[in-house]
Amino acid sequence: MTKKQFPQSKVYQLLEPGPVTLVTTFYKKKANVMTMSWHMMIDFEPPIFACVISDQNHTFNILAKTKECVVNIPTVEFAQKVVQVGNISGDTVDKFEKFHLLQEPASIVKAPLLTECYANLECRVIDMKMKAQYNIFILEVLKAWIRPTKKRPRMIHHCGNGVFIVDGNKIKIPSKKK
Ligand SMILES: Cc1cc2nc3c(=O)[nH]c(=O)nc-3n(C[C@H](O)[C@H](O)[C@H](O)COP(=O)(O)O)c2cc1C
User: Fold this and answer.
1) What is the pLDDT of residues 84-115, one digit of tens each?
2) Which residues are near ligand 1 (CB < 6 Å)?
3) Distance between first and last Cα of the chain
4) What is the rounded CA–CA span in Å between residue 14 and residue 6?
């Protein structure tokens, strides 16, 4: 046996899902933002994905009420703020003010786009059937934006406990076209 057992509590680190994101919401004239790394694509067009937002988070209640948000995708330059935003709750603090986050209006949803992020996905919640049991929200992307001037966006991936992997080299392996 060449393998060593891996702790159950760390399995999530092996299945890290994709770039760390920042979820913005808007409720009662106030915007909020949280860090979210647990998400999973479900469909291409319209783009649909699932995300896990803990019921301990302020965002959980806002999202359940307003059923809309923006999922913003930052690059490595923003990593420090990503961690700060993910370590404090917006129920008592205005994180936009505290962390000097720049925002601009979205086109469809009320939640703002984070200006400094590479991509911004305006989303609406289309299914909350798994919310109570698993904190899962199913989101449909209504409109997607990217910053065209950013030539080589390097996203960050969360490995747990403050450790991140930064996107590296791209490789291309042609596959069958659909
Ligand atoms: C790198 C990182 C990734 C995180 N990923 C998630 C996640 O996927 N789901 C979640 O519910 N919380 C996640 N969190 C924790 C929330 O961002 C954190 O609880 C935040 O304070 C919630 O803010 P809110 O109460 O204003 O909604 C993450 C935090 C960090 C630092």
Assistant:
1) 999 999 999 999 999 999 999 999 999 999 99
2) 20, 32, 34-38, 52-54, 57-59, 83, 86-91, 158
3) 41
4) 10
pTM of the predicted model over 0.90? yes
For the stretch 115-147, pLDDT in tens is: 999 999 999 999 999 999 999 999 999 999 999
Count Cβ atoms below 10 Å from residue 153 Cβ, excluding itself. Answer: 17
CA of 159 relative to ligand 1 center, distance in Å? 14
Ligand 1 pocket test, candidate residues 34, 80, 131, most atoms within 8 A of CB: 34
> Which one has a higher pLDDT value, 24 or 10?
24
Residue 83 alpha carbon, nearest atom of ligand 1:
31
Residue 134 to residues 52, 129, 131, 138, 165, Cα–Cα distance (Å): 7, 9, 5, 12, 26
Looking at domain 8-166, its CATH class is mainly beta
**The residue to which tokens 């490789």 are assigned:** 171
Domain-wise residue ranges, the chain: 8-166
**Any alpha helices (H) in 54-161, and if so which ranges?**
58-66, 79-85, 95-98, 131-134
Q: Give pLDDT tens digits for 1-19.
A: 898 888 888 888 777 778 9
Q: Which two tokens stand for residue 84?
A: 């700060």
